[in-house]
Amino acid sequence: MEEFKNIDDFLAKWASGELSDDQKKSFEQSEEYTYYKAILEGTEVLDVPHYNKEGLYQKVQAQKEKEGKVISLVPKWVYTTAAAVAVLFFGYIWPTNSATEYSTGYGEQLTAHLPDNSEVIINSNSTLSFHKKDWKNGNRNVDLNGEAFFNVEKGSNFTVETTNGRVTVMGTEFTVSSEDNFFQVVCYEGKVRVSLKDLSQTLLQGDAFRIHKGTVENWKMNNVEPTWIQGESNFTNAPLSQVVKALENQFDITINTENVDTDIRFTGSFTHGDMKIALQIVFESMDITYTFTDKNTVILVVK
User: Fold this and answer.
1) Binning pLDDT at 50, 70 and 90, where does residue 241 land?
2) What is the pTM of this model?
3) Are residues 3 and 62 in the same domain?
4) Domain with 283 in it
């Protein structure tokens, strides 16, 4: 791309659709075109809000004038597209054979569409990744660390890999939650197969499965989708450690549990809209006192 002297300006205009026909034709015939096109297309699976192309372009120009020099690195020009902004905020997408990855922070949720149009809603402080090239060969595999709700299109086997176990389906709706010493799967529609090192179990609609510290638990539920999608986390006879983790992920706080038994069980829910109300609902019902040692740290003590 030797003829394009100012690469930042050029890529900003290309990403915004502002190139002339001659410029676009010349660029498409260059060796660099395939590389930059792969990066831009990689962002299309994300749901992103409407954006002001002109405003973003002006910000790029202002930043360049402030710096007084141009460094031709991909991350710099990526700021000129809203899709790329979503990539920088939620995760990273790279071309070639590397994995596509989506990540959420504390209190965040992200909806992503996979190559087969399956939909995934990723809960707070979680990461989902997959290799796009594998899907072209019918291998629908994703890796999950945290919690996500899957609405899977029918087709070949769809597999969710976690450090705790594997979930395989053909087409259905379900959630998977995988943390240290905790693994939970809930089937909302269809049928899923849960596979662990020395255990395999099939779940039908309304079935829920949990393994906590090596103990398997099964129960029934009536919800048509996970309540956390609507801003409320719900638990059925869940160990306190799971509830604490959910509170930490939602409100970006650290909860000290050294003085309480984290294996005691909680049934109920807490709202995502108000941290203090959420803490009151959970801990006061369990006769546990919570105290803030600073704005982000909570210590628990049995009453």
Assistant:
1) very high
2) 0.67
3) yes
4) 231-303
